[in-house]
Amino acid sequence: MSKKNKHSPSKAKTKTKVEPFWQTKTLAQMTRAEWESLCDGCAKCCLHKFIDDENTTDETELKPTTHIAQGEQMSYSNIACHLLNDKSCQCSKYEQRTELVPDCVQLTQENLDDVFFMPPSCTYRRLKEGRGIPSWHPLLHHGKKSAMHQAGMSVRGKVIKDNDVELEDFEDYIVLWPLHDID
Ligand code: SF4
Ligand code: SF4
Q1: Higher pLDDT, 13 or 43
Q2: N or C: which end of the chain has fewer CB within 10 A?
């Protein structure tokens, strides 16, 4: 009679843990699809920001700028671009955005140095500063944005559109919440 040993060791199943791309690659090494997927969709970058610049003249006031000089401070407002869908937090004209809104900042791997224009919670900025992606990021929630909205990290329910206000009155709309970050 043959006997089988119930306790004989079975073949060990070894699973290799795959590290997520944002932990193994630099921003510059990512593919286009990986880069795009990092955007959390918070839409904080669609808010109007203002820089208090001592050299501002009547001519340059409220005009777009591409730099911040040393000592200048950027303030966020709760005024959002008129093309933003403030419920989904998505651009309603994504493909034409740079034509329709010339100062729409499109962050790419080529202009990564402009990341300072992004809020502290922006995933690109977080990764550039070595802070990783936050626990509420859609990539950690099967692509869903609900954790981000619940954490209060998106603009949903907090903004007014720029075609509903006079930009000259921007000081009435300066807010601190876009600077908030968690994790
Ligand atoms: S702030 Fe950064 S992560 Fe958030 S929507 Fe804009 S680009 Fe994407
Ligand atoms: S054009 Fe679209 S992506 Fe650009 S600021 Fe406006 S809503 Fe945001």
Answers
A1: 43
A2: N
Residue with tokens 């000089």: 69
Q: Are strands 160-161 and 73-80 parallel, antiparallel or unpaired?
A: parallel
Residues with CB under 6 A from ligand 2: 46, 81, 83-84, 91, 97, 101, 104
CA distance 154 to 42: 4
Residue 144 has pLDDT above 90, yes or no: yes
**Spatial contact of 133 and 127, defined as CB atoms under 8 Å apart:** yes
Rounded mean pLDDT, 40-57: 85
Give the burial string for 33-61 (b: 16+ CB within 10 Å, else e): eebebbbbbbbbbbbbbbeeeeeeeeeee
Reported as a pLDDT band with limits 50, 70 and 90, residue 13 is low
Number of Cβ within 10 Å of residue 86's Cβ equals: 19
**C-beta of 89 in contact with ligand 1 (< 6 A):** no
- pLDDT tens readout for residues 88-100: 999 999 999 989 9
In which residue are the tokens 């919670």 written?
A: 121
Considering only CA atoms, which residue is closest to atom 8 of ligand 2?
A: 46
What is the C-alpha to C-alpha distance for residues 11 and 143, in angstroms, rounded to an integer? 35
Map out the domains of the chain as residue ranges. 26-58+73-179
Cα of 24 vs centre of ligand 2, distance in Å, is: 30
